[in-house]
Amino acid sequence: MKTLGLVLICVALLGPMVFAHEGHDHKFMGTVSSIQNDQMEMKDTDGKVWTFSLPDKTKIIRGTAVVKPADIKPGDRVVVVAVGGGKKPYVVKEVRVGVRR
Amino acid sequence: MGRVIRWLFFLVIILGLVGAIGYLFVRGRGFSARAEPGRIETTVARAIRRQAIPVQARDRRSPLAPTADTVRGGLDHFADHCAICHGNDGSGDTEIGRAMYPKVPDMRRPDTQSLTDGELFYIIENGVPLTGMPAWGTGTPDGEMETWHLVHFIRHLPQVTEAELDEMKKLNPKTEDEWREEEKMQRFLEGGDVPAPKPSTPAHKHGGQK
């Protein structure tokens, strides 16, 4: 019986594994084109347009203060740290919002 | 004698079976550090780790008073040595932390916070075999004091503030390129000139960065 238990533990250790690939952190620097709900579109400094997903846990910082997604407006300069890419949209971990001129 | 042979035979069969399952598993799926350990593996590994820490080490108490200065000492050290894997906030949500097997734990959660001070100290000093956690112990009294500062900071992680995280960002080790990149982003955010577009953009840098 003990041996059977040992076998079951060994099999379980080799059991199903979930593969997840969040990939590298990517940094983007540009100007917000639009923002609504949990999506933000940004044109980077090379003129390329990127679309990001903004989950609830995204940290948004202006200066040293944490702000809400609603505080980001089109025209704001931002530095975005995001993971993902490829076939999936980038998921934003952090947005640093610049001062408005 | 016959009983021993029967048991040995049984053992060989079991080992063969486990080996065959392992072989089929590896052949079928390959291996990857991106995988997540299963619940049983995690539970067994943590139980073994707990049993492997000597009782007297587990019961050790910090010789330092839990003051703001003690936490601050741990913060500085953590930002410089630990944050590259654990993240400044201890979440483990870093490029290295996410790609390890097992993944770097979120130290703000009860799995870590429920460890005794002695266990945390022992893990920092001795590392954890078969994970990415190295043994940081130097065997010196000064080294031990640094580790106790870290233990106090780990206890503080669930209450770490945004101001502390900002401070830590300045203490994180950076290459010269990373400092230049950081300065460029800061200038951009403060309304400075937009960097000139480059002819091509490397795979993991976007928006005119190096």
Question: What does this 3D model show about the protein?
Answer:
The complex is a heterodimer of chains A (about 100) and B (about 210). Chain A is mainly β. Chain A has a single domain, classed as Copper binding periplasmic protein CusF (OB fold (Dihydrolipoamide Acetyltransferase, E2P), Beta Barrel), CATH 2.40.50. A 5-stranded mixed barrel of chain A has the order 2-3-4-8-7. Chain A is globular, with a radius of gyration of 20 Å. Chain A starts with a helix and ends with a strand. About 15% of the residues of chain A have low confidence. Helix content of chain B is about 60%, strand content about 0%. Chain B has a domain of about 130 residues: Cytochrome c-like domain (Cytochrome Bc1 Complex, Chain D, domain 2). In chain B, about 20% of the residues are buried. Chain B is mainly α. At the A-B interface, helix 1, strand 1, strand 2, strand 6 and strand 7 of A face helix 1, strand 1, helix 2, helix 9 and helix 10 of B. Strand 1 of chain A pairs antiparallel with strand 1 of chain B, so a sheet runs across the interface.
